[in-house]
Amino acid sequence: MALTRLAHFSIRTTDLERTCAFYERILGFRRGYRPPFDFPGAWLYMGDDERDYGTVHIIGVDPDNPQGLSAYLGDKALPASGTGTLDHIAFLATGVRQMWATLRAEGIAWRDRTVPSLGLHQVFIEDPSGVTIELNYPAAEVEGLELPKAAQA
């Protein structure tokens, strides 16, 4: 049996709405269908297709009522922030100038890197839970440009 592709990634958070708003406003995801689990959460989709069960699953951690989440996914300590042993999550993207403008307008810090041998320009940001997101743009989008100063969060 062979793996065919990554289905989704999940993020546990104590601030469901702030985390969803980040993925919606900054990265362009939209909320879609999510089964009626016994714990809060949201499934976020790229584009209009809901056949793939969402790309990002936001899992709401309710410290006052953890039973539903524990019963479904098991007890797991929530780190203060970050990704634990997972370093980052990466997406392919286009429109780096528009992303820079969005990040600046939202006051979100970022780091730029170009990998010439791969033809990629990378923008690194962090979501409200401290999860690092890598956005990979065609390096041609930044050729000849002076990179903007990143916003300071």
From TrEMBL:
<keyword id="KW-0560">Oxidoreductase</keyword>
<protein>
    <submittedName>
        <fullName>Glyoxalase/bleomycin resistance protein/dioxygenase</fullName>
    </submittedName>
</protein>
<keyword id="KW-0223">Dioxygenase</keyword>
<dbReference type="InterPro" id="IPR037523">
    <property type="entry name" value="VOC_core"/>
</dbReference>
<dbReference type="InterPro" id="IPR029068">
    <property type="entry name" value="Glyas_Bleomycin-R_OHBP_Dase"/>
</dbReference>
<feature type="domain" description="VOC">
    <location>
        <begin position="5"/>
        <end position="138"/>
    </location>
</feature>
<dbReference type="InterPro" id="IPR004360">
    <property type="entry name" value="Glyas_Fos-R_dOase_dom"/>
</dbReference>
<dbReference type="GO" id="GO:0051213">
    <property type="term" value="F:dioxygenase activity"/>
</dbReference>
<dbReference type="Pfam" id="PF00903">
    <property type="entry name" value="Glyoxalase"/>
</dbReference>
